[in-house]
Each structure stands twice: as structure tokens, then as C-alpha cells.
Write a structure and sequence with these properties.
The chain is an alpha/beta fold. The chain has one domain: Rossmann fold. It contains 8 helices and 9 strands. The strands form 2 sheets. It has a 6-stranded mixed sheet, sandwiched between helices. A 3-stranded antiparallel sheet has the order 2-1-4. Helix 3 packs antiparallel against helix 4.
Amino acid sequence: MIEIKHVKKYYGTKSLGLMDESALINSGEVVGILGQNGAGKSTLLKAVMGLTELTAGQVLIEGKTPVEMHREMAFITHEGSYFPHLTPRGYGEFLSEYFPGFNKERYEKLLKFFELEPGTKIKTFSHGQKARLEMCAGLSKMARYIIMDEPFLGEDILTRQDFIKLMASSIKEDETILVSTHHVNEIENFLDRAIILRRGRIAADVYIDDLKNQGKTLQQLIMELSGYSGDRFKELPD
């Protein structure tokens, strides 16, 4: 269980990340953290991981701080958590020492699946290859809490589909996943729930089944909450 209690985050004195937000995420849920750029998605995920100092409030995971639970957590991010000077093989050796539950066999299978050369320096990889390596490492830590911040960034549609199928086939009942992405339509059927942020506030917290019963899609809900109009282009001068 993840408890987000009155979390507030300011960058400097004016830039808002999150404004006094609270949420309870149950164990085993797959939750989309969605919204426009600058809505506070990355800030919320980093707060859950304990990677940012909060202005106020706290995050508890099973009643403990993120720092106390770090060995039970995996952070898969477009920013990358690997060491560029290492090879994927060397990175795997490091992870196996640092994370007791790291599954080296699974890691090597994933490297092969994504056609990543284990003996090549990570710094020579393309952006997409680095994103795939990040996924391989994150899913091999066998963590109970998997936090993903734009894991599909820079990937083509086929690779994104591979990512989603991989996650769907490997998730265990006691694993909790939080994932931020702009590819809402592609991931909607993978989610149990969606928390939609707007300007640092939680604008909606919905279960996907309830949304479907209302005859709505996640994309429609996000557009409604943002006040988006498909006719905006008509306001442009001729």
C-alpha cells in the first residue's frame, strides 16, 4: 500500500510541482499517473520513490518511508538509472549485488528479447536502446513496487506494444505498478485505475471499469478536465 499524505512540492518559491495532494494506492493495483506536460506526474512519482525533497507532507509505503523500502522498489525512467560507462553485462553484475532479489537469468533473457548487445558500452546506445535497457533492469529487480516515468519515450509503436505485453504477462498479484505516459490509448486496457493531474492537483481518480460503464475513455476524460476543444484551430487567423 502506498499512502500519499498532503504532499506539497515547490521548486524554488514560485514553480509548483504538487499542491497538498493525498491518495491511497492499494497493493496489486496498476495505476496510470496521467496528465499534460507540467501537470506534476514526474514530481509525484519521484516523491513516491523518495527522490525529491518535499515541501510538506509525506509518502509511506507499507507504513515505511521510500528510503526504508528502496530494495522493494524499481524505478524505470526515461532519464535512465544505468551507468553509461558500463556494459549491460556489467550493469547486471552491479544490480545483482545491490538488489538481493535481482533475477540475472530474466535480465539476460530480456536483453536478448530486446536485441541489446551485452558487451557493448551503454553510452554508445541509441535513446531507444537505453530505454529498453532500463526496462530490462527494472523488470528484473523483482520488486513489489514498480514505478515507471515515461518508459516508452522515443520508442516506436511496435516496441511500445512489446513493452505493454511484457508487463501484462509478467505482473504478479502482489506487485503494484505506477506508470506515467502520454500513450493513453495504448495503455488503457492495462490499467486498473487512473490518477489524472492538472496543474499540480489531482483532477480525477477513477477506476477504468467505472469509466467504461460511463461510456467514456481515458483520453476523453483528460480532454474534458483540461478544457480542450477540438475546434481551437478555427480561432487561428486566416
